[in-house]
Amino acid sequence: MPVQSKSAILAPPTSVNNAGRDMKIIATGMLVVMAIVYFAAKSYEPVHPALGFVRAFAEAAMVGGLADWFAVTALFRHPMGIPIPHTAIIPRNKDRIGDTLANFLRDNFLVSKIVAQRMYRVDMAGAAGRFLKSPSGGEGRLRFGASRMFADIIGSLDQDRLGSMFKGAVKKQATQLDIATPMGQILEAVMSENRHGPLIDSTIKWAYRTLDANEHVIRTIVHERANTVMKWTGLDDRLSNEVMDGLYKLLADMATDTNHPVRAKSAESLAQLADELQNDAELRRRIEEWKLEMLENPAIANWIDGMWEHGREALLKASRNPDAALAGQFGDALVQLGGSLQKDEILNRQLNRFARRAVVGVVSSYGDNIVKLVSETIRGWDAQTITDRVENAVGRDLQYIRVNGTLVGGLVGLTLHSLGYWI
Fold first, then answer.
1. Fewest CB within 10 angstroms: 98, 190, 353, 407, which?
2. Alpha carbons 201 and 65: distance in angstroms, whole number
3. If you compute the radius of gyration of the chain from its CA atoms, what whole number of angstroms results?
4. What is the structure's pLDDT at 3?
5. Nearest CA among 75, 27, 61 for reference residue 413
6. Mean pLDDT across the stretch 85-109?
7. Model's pTM, two decimal places?
């Protein structure tokens, strides 16, 4: 996304600039016209006395127009560049204006009581429900605009820094996570509900596959440890066969007999393990050490990196194409949630209460920071920047003041000149 310069960001819309400039031309043109009319009427006044009324109107209009031009100009700069006292009011007092604006914002908007009262009239849950129920309806432009803005924000963030923050947060949470206790609680719940049978069955199957794959290793061990006489007589082969047959038979009996003594012993061992995972300090310490070693493993670091990259790409994809993100079962679930938010009064009330408390909490916790941000931002602007922003915001109305001053001044001058004939 192209980076905008500070001047581009601070620049007001072109239409506002054009409107203010047009009114400025009109106001200045009226002043010039009044000057021309004044000198023409004064020159020809001896020819026809009625031109005195025109002269009086134009003369007073010039005075009124010049006075209002001075007043309007003095707000933003020194008239004609002359440093007259009490002119260039806004540039000279920009810091005070910033503080006053910040205090006004704090005293009239960022007050918890006022925010809470306003939030009582806001049905945020209902609005969210209508949006989720019909995401492609009237809010389509808002949705796509928000999604594009969200995508631009994600894309503009420093990927490396944000990724480091995410990975650091994940690692910190994992470091503080106690995995021994939940493991023990899960195993204890499995044992109490007598659902450990499939776990033992899986262990038996794993043992059988392991035994079958390593049968030659066991036979080699028996052969190496047999004495010379056993090797000469071939008893070592018979012994290894007996060992293998016994192991296979044991596993087969355990698989078919749910009351096998070894299975019962295994269940006791699992129950003991569940208790030790929650209460044995030595075992819990070893598991904690194992967890920390795992977190330092490069494979785990690569997995966290991949999780961050996939998550970021998913957010970008969803925000750039909200229709695709709202498709399928996820979209159906959101539509159902939107319907519930509209129909379920209890859920609606609870969500509105949560939203109200969240907004009030943000105002209460960060209101001073928001005020400080406004004040410091305005203080950071140079005098020309704040002058241009204020002048472009209200310049059209200020030029109307000049126009009105010219007309009102002319009418006052005409009235006074007329009264001079009657008195």
1. 353
2. 99
3. 42
4. 38
5. 61
6. 78
7. 0.39
Which pLDDT belongs to residue 32? Answer: 92
Helix (H) or strand (E) holding 349: helix 345-380
CA distance 321 to 131: 16
- The set of residues, in sequence order, having a beta carbon less than 8 Å from that of 346 and lying 6+ positions away, is none
| Residue 205 token pair | 């199957």
Give the 3-state DSSP-derived string for 250-317, with helices as H, strands as E and coil as C.
Answer: HHHHHHHCCCCHHHHHHHHHHHHHHHHHHHCHHHHHHHHHHHHHHHCCHHHHHHHHHHHHHHHHHHHH
Cα three-residue angle 354-358-364, rounded to 5 degrees: 145
Q: Which two tokens stand for residue 378?
A: 């305005």
Which residue is listed with tokens 């994940």?
170
Place of tokens 């319907």: 339
Token look-up 């020819």 returns: 47
Alpha helices by DSSP H, 193-259: 197-213, 215-225, 228-233, 235-256
**Span 213-271, pLDDT tens digits:** 888 877 777 777 666 545 555 566 777 777 788 888 888 888 888 788 888 888 888 88
Q: What is d(CA 334, CA 351) in angstroms, rounded to the nearest whole number?
A: 15
